Amino acid sequence: MTSSLVPPSPVTPTTVRLYAAAIASAKIGTGFFFLINTWLIIELTHQPSSAALTLVMTILPSLLLSPLIGLAVDRGRPARLAYRAEWLRWLVLILYGGLYGAGLAGAWTGYAVSFLVALGNEIQVLAWRAALVRAAPAEQMLRLNALTVVGGQAGQILGAAASGLVLAAIGPVPTIVLTATAYLLSALFGRLVAGRLSGQDPATAARRDLRQHLRDLAAGLGHIRERPEIGFFYGLMLANLTVIFGINAMLAPFVQEELHLGAAAFGQIDAGYAAGAITGGLVVARLAARFGRRPILISGFLLMATSLAAFAHSHGFVAAIIAYAGLGISFQTNVLALSLAQQATDPAYQGRVNASFNTLNGLAGLVIYGIVALSAGHHLYRTLYLGQAAIMLAMVPAIILAGRGGRVSRLLVPGTDRARAQAQAAGSL
Predict the structure, then answer these.
(1) pLDDT, tens digit, for every residue of 209-235?
(2) DSSP character at residue 9
(3) If both were cysteines, with which of 124, 155, 404, 414 could 27 make a disulfide (CB 3.0 to 4.6 Å apart)?
């Protein structure tokens, strides 16, 4: 009798397909935008180093604004925020196309566009994560997070692969408009998803003053202190992201200076990562259900360390693309850690908790980019890759020790082992 009173989840197969379309469309836009923005900013400044500055601009929203975005997500309607962020990106790029076509765009126009498009991405990511956690049961989140990676990487492959050809065929302004159209499609799909999730939104909150906003932010930090397992899983995600920052910054010079290959090989190796990430995203939920979350996390970090070491020692295209595909597969440790962090976090605090760690991620990105910039011209890329491999290898004993008891263990050991894990945790408290 009581089971009939439980409302069905609004995350139906149709909702999932619409969500996947929204994510894929946004990532197609991102794939286009990455190439056209870095290419056009070099044309505007005539300085190759300006492309690096655009990467820094993409980090600033998470570094400076994540706490405020997270608070807005927790206090508002996250699904609506998500698709409105895509409206923002569409509008910014339409204006950019107009300014560029009129010859009025300068270097700082490009930098501002990088910042605003990254701001839209920050809002979209935080908002969709919170919206799905509110609407979906905990056991469905791993599949939804994996779907986000699969749809996102598929869209990014398509965008990155087509962007160069499209730019050469139709020119900068039509390409910018086409990029904006991808974000517009994402907004339309997102609007449909938001309509299906609208019943999960809280009632409109009363207007809050500055003091209340500060108390709300402090409450999010207090929630993290009360549940240290949140910090553990976000720490695993941070370890993953340091690898992402590093390989994004080092791939182009590594391919050119160490492998002595051209732009075509660069694009193919980068696509190898995306193909690996898609493959891993399709199987991670099944593997975690069959073998357990802890073994998959451990295997993923071992694969990541091995792939980084193999890439550091590669001297040709084949070895490099295989190692890079392995890195893509191992990225599923980030998906699994995110799902466990979401499960450990109260739904009312999802936005603020996620945003707090995004700020740390932004700081880590600045540090990594700084290290890579300082090492430019010194042929230290292989050493840096090996250093990252050693750090990822150190994550393995950390996971093993954390899984022996306590709150982390209760999340790492699902199914039939949960009762034993809870008994161990009770004895350790």
Answers:
(1) 556 666 777 777 777 788 888 888 888
(2) P
(3) 155
Q: Do the Cβ atoms of 26 and 186 come closer than 8 Å?
A: yes
Q: What is the pTM of this model?
A: 0.73
Provide CB contacts within 8 A for 113, sequence distance 6+: 37, 92, 93, 96
Return the structure tokens found at 328: 């893509």
- Please name each of the domains of the chain with its CATH number: 8-199 (1.20.1250.20), 210-429 (1.20.1250.20)
Report how far residue 8's alpha carbon sits from residue 65's, in angstroms, rounded to the nearest whole number: 35
Phi, psi at 134, each rounded to 5°: -65, -35
Residue 124's nearest CA partner among 351, 380, 297, 357 is 351
HSE-CB of 209 using CA atoms within 13 angstroms: 1
In whole angstroms, give the CA distance from residue 160 to residue 354: 28
Q: Most confidently modeled of 174-178, 224-228, 376-380?
A: 174-178
Give the H or E element holding residue 249: helix 228-253
Secondary structure of residue 106 in the 3-state scheme: coil
Instruction: Measure Cα distances from 158 to 153, 163, 329, 390 in Å.
Output: 9, 8, 19, 33
Mean pLDDT of 294-315: 93
- pLDDT tier for residue 136 given thresholds of 50, 70 and 90: confident
The count of other CB atoms within 10 Å of the CB of residue 385 is 24
Q: Which residues, 6 or more positions from 114, have their beta carbon under 8 angstroms from its beta carbon? A: 37, 41, 54, 57, 58
Q: Burial level of 281, CB count in 10 A (0-12/13-18/19+)?
A: buried
Dihedral angle, C-alpha 128, 129, 134, 138, nearest 10 °: 140
DSSP state of 376: T
Of 348, 306, 338, give the one whose Cα is nearest residue 323: 306
Q: How far from 355 is each of 21, 129, 204, 226, CA to CA, in Å?
A: 25, 11, 21, 17
> Can you tell me the mean pLDDT for 394-400?
90
Which is nearest to 337 in space by CA: 410, 236, 415?
A: 236
> What whole-number distance in Å separates Cα of residue 10 and Cα of residue 180?
29
Distance CA 212, CA 228 (A): 25
